Amino acid sequence: MKRMLPEEPAMRFALSFAKHLAVVAIVGWCFSFTAHLAAKEAAPSAVRAKNVIIMVADGAGFNTWRATSMYRGQLGNEIYDKPGWIQLAVTTYPLTTSTKPEGKEKQNENLVYSPQKAWDPNKGYAWLKSSATDSAAAATAMATGIKTYNNAINWDDRDRPLTGKTLPEIAHELGKSAGVVTSVQWSHATPAGFGGAHNRERDHYAEIAREMLAAPYLQVIMGAGHPEYDNNGQRKSGEATDKDCRYVGGLAEWQSLTAGRHPGGWTLIQTKEQFEKLTQGSTPAKVVGTAQVATTLQQARGGLLGIVVRNEPFATPFNDNVPTLATMAVGAINVLDNNPQGFYLMIEGGAVDWANHANQLHRMIEEQSDFLAAVEAVVDWIEKNSSWDETLLILTADHECGLLWGPNSDKTPFDPVRDQGPGKMPAARYNSTGHTNSLVPLYARGAGADLFRKLIRGKDPRAAEAWGISGEFVDNTDIFRVSRAVLTGQNLAP
């Protein structure tokens, strides 16, 4: 019989206990891993949208939206006030207010939105005016998620094009179609930025137009800028020159479009009837629509002798040879919706900004009303032909313009705009002819709209009080972050 050493019983017990511990640990690990997988499977997955539509009322701060709703008799009852809409504010400041790249790529902290600076009764107006973005830097921020200097079209502060980083380029990589629509020249800053052009300077219109026409990622381009017509929709005498054609890429580019032999395969439409026909039925694969008017669809039109008279909204007869923004929007969607993979589209009410620059309250109301009619048309398309589960709609502005406040706002800063009733001009006053760093609205509904709630960067109590909103705000770069996330079906990038 084998003799047991004194240590053996203790050793056996230790070994047995260790085995039990190992089994328990393995079972525990398996349970933990299984629970982890279950939790991972139960967690909400990233949202994917088939379509993303961004609508920009250029230069429209909160008081532009509110004043127009007052005139319409719809304050608090607009389509974006209905259930299901996210309502926030947006900061719009640029990286720098330089008009050239500085090579620093460092945020100028004095430009970052500050409620304390913005609402200062003594210095607020001056700070808001001096720290504002332009449309180029704002479009770049929303189309790429990158802040840059004023004047830049998808170009960074280190003097590099942001190639491959814009929303239309991302949509193209995903097999989707893309387009831009505007009520001003289609090579202007906002459509250029959202259309994926890349340029150091926004005023290089011919270069920008040629890049847009050559881009493989655009299937729709629409706007004004016709070289052969004036602001009243009247045909100009004489032949169009290269300068006349700068907004459409130059004379040679225009001639190739009108002859139907552009290498990009574009179909050119020009007449109001052609735009209207595009809203239903079969369409060409790629459409460039250049309405028969010079700078804007309607804002720059004159009355007798071509003079813009300051009168009531809608008093001056409209140009009758051009489409509305709503018609253009629906036509663009009808083209882009041919792609079963979906699309990305930017629609701009560009002349809202032009009216505010000119301090034309009556024309601003006309232009913002036209924009809101386009919003209603897009919502109607979503609800009849798509769904809120597969389409994300974002309404916003690139910046405020005009520092629009109430009638006594020159003496009492931030005096509120006064409602005079439906069909009557609100009592208001402009305090600037330029852009400001004021908060602007953001209204979103549909696939992934709730993601904006995860990106709130602060709260402005004075904004909440002045405009009857929550006061919570995101940044304009967050519009890109949410759009990219839902286009790709990935989680929000940091």
Automatic annotation (TrEMBL):
Record carries keyword Coiled coil: no
Keywords: Hydrolase, Magnesium, Metal-binding, Phosphoprotein, Zinc
Phosphoprotein among keywords: yes
Pfam families per UniProt: Alk_phosphatase
Active-site annotation: S135
Gene Ontology terms, MF aspect: alkaline phosphatase activity; metal ion binding
EC code: 3.1.3.1
InterPro entries noted in UniProt: Alkaline_phosphatase, Alkaline_phosphatase_core_sf
Positions of Zn(2+) 1 binding: D353
Superkingdom, natural source: Bacteria
UniProt cofactor note: Binds 1 Mg(2+) ion.
Residues the entry annotates as binding Zn(2+) 2: D58, H357, D398, H399
EC main group: hydrolase
Binding site for Mg(2+): D58, H188, T190, E348
Cofactor(s) demanded: Mg(2+); Zn(2+)
PANTHER family: ALKALINE PHOSPHATASE
Homology family: Belongs to the alkaline phosphatase family.
Stated name of the protein: Alkaline phosphatase
Organism for this UniProt entry: Thermogutta terrifontis
Lineage, opening ranks: Bacteria, Pseudomonadati, Planctomycetota, Planctomycetia, Pirellulales
